[in-house]
Amino acid sequence: MSTRGGRAVEKISYLGLPNCYRLSNGAVEAVVTSDVGPRIVRYGFAGAENILGEVPGATLTTELGDFKPWGGHRLWVAPEAKPRSYAPDNSPLTVAFEGERAIRLTAPVEAATGIEKELCVALDGEGSGLSVSHKVTNRNLWAINAAPWALTIMRGGGTAIFPQEPYISWDDYLLPARPLVLWHYTNLSDARWSIGKKFIRLTTDASANHPQKVGMMNKQGWAAYRHGTTLFVKRFDYEEGATYPDYGCNCETYTSGDFIEVESLAPLQRLEPGASAEHVERWTLFGEVEAGASEDELEAAISPFVAG
Asked: Which residue from 107, 158, 231, 269 lies 20 to 30 Å from 45 (Cα-Cα)?
């Protein structure tokens, strides 16, 4: 693999985009875009499948133009609204290298929203750790209320996993544990959901094109996605007492057909002109994670990878 100025980064074409950059440490690799986005379009073990989903042909047309998800990981701003959230991000980015395996990608200010988006991706020197920093800056002449929103499209055919709050007996504690937020199209009797004492799980089904979504206050600070024997884990902070979007959600998931997202959100903030808000996720990837169908078997298999 070539380097740029001593950095373990290589310029490549990916998903038909000619100006992508691959960060690698020999164990795992991440590919980011600079023609559009910003996006992380690949994260996986070197030479192995991409744990992220790829949807280069998808397009959503709004009055602001064509929004293309491309796949993988992107930065949005909560709360969601149409067409504002779907402002096209099809312009080239400013690229800055920060260390041997770190890259900062800054998009032009969105004309329709006055928001500037920035993604900084840093790969550990060894192992699978990836730090993803999301930054939104208000370039309007007026204040806005907003929150960075990190959305990851996963490779279809797997299961998203979210922790329930630790069990406490009614005899010991009477107050509620956390909100679980439903959308108008959410159907908890749908076979793709599995809601148990320890986990909430959502599995993709290519034949089921009616969407499902839930949000939650996730105080445990992690979410996972299991595809075969590969386990993807993202970690994020929970801020006690903060106001989160969507009735108090710092974690959400959505699926339709083979498409599925694992999402985390920062608290809502009032951003004065020129002010910024940041949100950091920490990614890790594990292979050969064998687990049965029961909650106990799943807990035994993934606990070493999601704890702490």
From this structure: 107
How many domains is the chain partitioned into structurally? Answer: 1
**85 by DSSP, 3-state: which?**
helix
Residue 3 lies in a domain: no
CATH for 236: 2.70.98.10
Burial level of 79, CB count in 10 A (0-12/13-18/19+)?
A: middle
C-alpha to C-alpha distance for 263 and 265, rounded to whole angstroms: 7
Burial pattern 295-306, b for ≥16 Cβ within 10 A else e, equals eeebbebbeeeb
- From CA 292, how far away is CA 213, in angstroms rounded? 25
Joined together, the tokens standing for residue 303 give 């606990």
Asked whether residue 218 is assigned to any structural domain, the reply reads yes
Residue in 179, 163, 176, 146 with CA at minimum distance from that of residue 245:
146
Q: Judge contact between 296 and 268, C-beta under 8 A.
A: no
- Whether 1 is covered by a domain: the verdict is no
Residue 78 located in a structural domain: yes
- Model confidence over 55-86: pLDDT tens digits? 999 999 999 999 999 999 999 999 999 999 99
Specify the long-range contacts of residues 108-115, CB closer than 8 Å, at least 24 apart. 109/139, 111/87, 112/64, 112/83, 112/84, 112/87, 113/77, 113/84, 113/87, 114/138, 114/139, 114/140, 114/144, 115/77, 115/139, 115/140, 115/144, 115/146
Q: In the block, which residue shows the tokens 């679980």?
A: 180
Give residue for tokens 């996006």. 39
The domain of 146 spans 9-306
Sequence-distant (6+) residues with CB within 8 A of 130 are: 28, 30, 43, 121, 122, 123, 124, 282, 283, 284
Burial (CB count within 10 angstroms: exposed 0-12, middle 13-18, buried 19+), residue 24: middle
pTM of the model: 0.95
Q: Which residue from 255, 187, 244 is spatially nearest to 216, judged by alpha carbons?
A: 244
Helix (H, G, I), strand (E, B), or coil: what is residue 142? coil
Amino acid identity, residue 138? N
